[in-house]
Amino acid sequence: MRLSRPVYEGLPLIYAVIGALAIFLFYIYPLGFAGKAAFLIGCICETAAMTLFLRRKDYRALSREYRGETMDLPSDLNG
User: Fold this and answer.
1) pLDDT tier, 48 (very low <50, low <70, confident <90, very high otherwise)
2) pLDDT confidence bin for 63, thresholds 50/70/90
3) What is the rounded distance in angstroms from the CA atom of residue 11 to the CA atom of residue 19?
4) Phi/psi class of residue 32: alpha, beta or left (left: φ > 0; alpha: ψ in -120 to 50)?
5) Which end of the chain has less neighbouring CB within 10 Å, N or C?
6) Distance between CA 79 and CA 76 in Å, rounded?
7) Distance (Å, rounded) from C-alpha 39 to C-alpha 21?
8) Are 22 and 45 in contact (CB under 8 A)?
9) CA–CA dist 31, 18 (Å, integer)
10) Are 11 and 52 in contact (CB under 8 A)?
């Protein structure tokens, strides 16, 4: 499944907003199952947002550093 670039770039922000809203819901209504479920969903969404953000940052840094060129190593196999 391919996403358009604006949607793909906005996913960490969307996850962060959903997580923040869920944690805010827990703050407003901390009692019962719904509050605990909202907090759990909020923590999972915040973790997903940070994971996506950091993995993209690392991937982009590595792709700038290593352009994919092959190294020409001397070979003794051809004689």
Assistant:
1) very high
2) confident
3) 12
4) left
5) N
6) 6
7) 10
8) yes
9) 20
10) yes
Nearest to 11 by CA among 66, 42, 50: 50
Q: 76: part of which helix (H) or strand (E)?
A: none
Q: What is the CA radius of gyration of the chain?
A: 22
| For the chain, percent of residues with pLDDT exceeding 90 | 51
d(CA 41, CA 28): 15
Pair 20, 39: CB distance under 8 Å: no
Residue at token pair 């391919």: 2
Q: What is the DSSP letter of 69?
A: P
Dist. CA 5–CA 37, nearest whole Å: 31
pLDDT of residue 45: 96
Of the candidates 51, 66, 54, 57, the one whose C-alpha atom is nearest the C-alpha of residue 19 is 51
